[in-house]
Structure formats: structure tokens, C-alpha cells
Amino acid sequence: MKKATLIVWVIILGFIALVIFQNQTFFMTSHSLRLNLGVINEYHTPEMPIAVVFIFFFFSGIVIAYLFGLSTRFKARRTAKKLNAAIISHKDEAAKLKSELDTLKGQDTPATSSRQAAETETGTDGIIELTGDHLVDNPADQQEANPAKDSKDKMSNKKS
Fold first, then answer.
1. 3-state class of 32 per DSSP?
2. What is the pLDDT at residue 113?
3. Is 34 a residue whose pLDDT tops 50?
4. What is the structure's pLDDT at 64?
5. Distance between CA atoms of 141 and 149, rounded to whole angstroms?
6. Which of 142, 110, 147, 115 is nearest to 128 (CA)?
């Protein structure tokens, strides 16, 4: 985004320079500005080229636009800080409530908390549980993985 903004400004300033270069006779003539408010005497600026007047008003317009956007920027920054603080407090409250729920269920073991941490990070649904230093597979997976053992058990039951 910064490169795009830079390119736009280069194009705008290049166009302004081109207009000034092609109309040097107009922009380099000297004129004086006057200001008459009716309350005080009329004020005349010193003689200066019109290009200087154009540059002065161009940059004063940029400053005025910046000042008008300044309050909006401060409000947005303040709102972002408040929302980030609310997110952090909600996350802390959710963690406290989860630990309280585990305590009430009687599941306050390191294995359960590590499984919950793994589930939240990986999105698993508890097929593999981490207990101590060992991985315990789901018993349903063990039965499916060894169908030959099941058939031997069935045959021995029939012979008996």
C-alpha cells in the first residue's frame, strides 16, 4: 500500500511540474496578493511569482486535510486499544472459567490440560491422548488395526 501511495504522489507531482514547465510565462510572472477585511487597512503581499502562491496553497491544503483527519485517527487508535484490552480480558476470563469447570468436574490433571492445549492448537477431537510420557491410542483404533487377533479369539471361543 505504501508503494501505491508513493506512486500516486509521484504522478500528481509530476503532472503539476509538467503544467508549471509548459506554462512558465504565467507561473513566473510576479503578482501581489491583497487582503481587505474591512476592519483593518488593506494588506498587500510582496511581489512573488504565481508558482510560489500555488505551492503555498497546495501545501496548506495538505496540512489542513491532515489536521481534519487527525482526530479520526486518534479516535480509531483509542478504540483499537480498548478492543484489544477487551479481547485480552475475555481470553483470561475464558481460561479461568475453563480451569474452574475442570476443577468442578474433578479433571484437574496435567494430562487433561495438555490434551486441551493440543486440541485447541491442532483441532484434534481426542483420538490420541497424552498421558504422562506415553501416547495412548484410541481403543477402537486398536481393534480395527488387528482383525486377525479378533478372528483367532472368535475361533478359540467356538472350540470351547
1. coil
2. 52
3. yes
4. 95
5. 14
6. 115
Apex CA 148: angle with CA 146 and CA 151, to 5°?
A: 120
**What dihedral angle (degrees, nearest 10) is formed by the CA atoms of 145, 147, 153, 157?**
140
Q: Which three cell numbers stand for residue 158?
A: 467356538
Is the per-residue pLDDT at 50 higher than 90? no
C-alpha distances in Å from residue 36, one per residue of 22, 33, 45, 54, 157: 33, 10, 12, 20, 115
- C-alpha cell of 16? 503539476
For the chain, how far is it from start to end, CA to CA, in angstroms? 79
Q: What is the pLDDT of residues 84-129, one digit of tens each?
A: 999 999 999 999 999 999 888 887 555 555 555 555 544 444 444 4
Beta-carbon contacts of 43 under 8 Å, excluding residues fewer than 6 positions away, are: 34, 35, 36
Q: The C-alpha cell of 136 is what? A: 495412548
pTM attached to this predicted model: 0.44
DSSP secondary structure, 58-126, as one string:
HHHHHHHHHHHHHHHHHHHHHHHHHHHHHHHHHHHHHHHHHHHHHHHHT---HHHHHHHHHHHHH---S
